[in-house]
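Practice problem: Isopenicillin-N epimerase
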Amino acid sequence: MSQSLKDHWLLRPDVDYLNHGSFGATPRCVLAAQQEWITRLETEPIEFLAPERTLLPKLDQVRNRIAKMVHAAAPDIAFVRNATDGVNAVVRSLPLQAGDELLVTNHGYKACTNAVRYAAERCGATVVTANLSFPITDSSEVIDSIAACLTPRTRWILIDHVTSPTGIILPVDEIVQLAHSRDIRIMIDGAHAPGMLPLNLRQTQPDYYTANHHKWLCGPKASGFLYVRDAWQDEVQPTVISHGANSDGYGESRFQSNFNWPGTFDPAPILALTTALDFLAGLHPPTRDDDLTTLMRSNHELVVAGRRVILDRLQIDEPAPESMLGSIATIPIPAWKQRTGEEINAIGQLLRSEHRFELPIFQLNEHLGCLRISAQAYNSLEQYERLASVLGDVRW
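Answer key — structure tokens:
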């Protein structure tokens, strides 16, 4: 990767930032666009921000871009602060009863599974956890693990499109088909997916799908979307109830009205997303509008190559097939097996303070110490080679 391309980001040059997957990193031009939107808002706050004035057309422009990118109808898309916000809105709106079962997986994002448990506890429902293996050799293992946990009481499933701790792509189309064959609703937490994977919600047909703009789309923080199938839109309420619940003029439908106006908020992170999409699409021209295929393929190839360097240096078998990877990859480190949580945290601090790496170091379970690498356009293979050298040379 050329230095000129890395210069599009503000990232510190003395740190190898291999952690795009956590919070993303926003390019300079997107930050400038965000500031420009803020300035326009503050120049004329009422005209800019009031939904009945000029805010809604601005939101709809971004909504249309997102809908086109994920192959969904624009009226089915609402904006949320992040994927956790989207999961909360859906699960806390479900008409649950005592005895119902909600299914999650052990690879789920903790914040979202916490939201599921909260909703279940309030009505006497039960949360069932499907234990997905890791290391993993084939996506069929995921299907089998989920199918084994389904019962006549299963009402709703939450799965990740790309798992946060293990970085594997789940076979979402097949899992949705499995759920619908049992008359079970299913939600996909796609926090990592937009900008990492091609999305076609018309093909996948989930009941609900939520994702972040700030990760692989490189948008500003506190911006994401929630897709809800038309049949369930009247049921889903945002986490903040505001004027749109019973006022006209806040959107084309009650679903849109509820989410368009959570009260006074800063829409700049949403509005700057069009600049982020244009920037990413322009990294590998020529390309169609919002077609990030070349960038996604390049990031995938880079993370696969980076993982291979580390696996070879440490003589580790691959923990997941390359076909189940997008732009992040998790590697269990044998030398960290049976380490305590405190010891694992100390390793992460050492890699940061002494070796200048920023990446997640964590315990996947009680005995499996792991690291996770990400690949974005500003990364280079040399960074993973340096990490592999450190991992191989330091006595852990």
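Discussion: Residues 101 and 151 are 8 Å apart (CA to CA). Students who identified this feature from the tokens alone can consider the problem solved.
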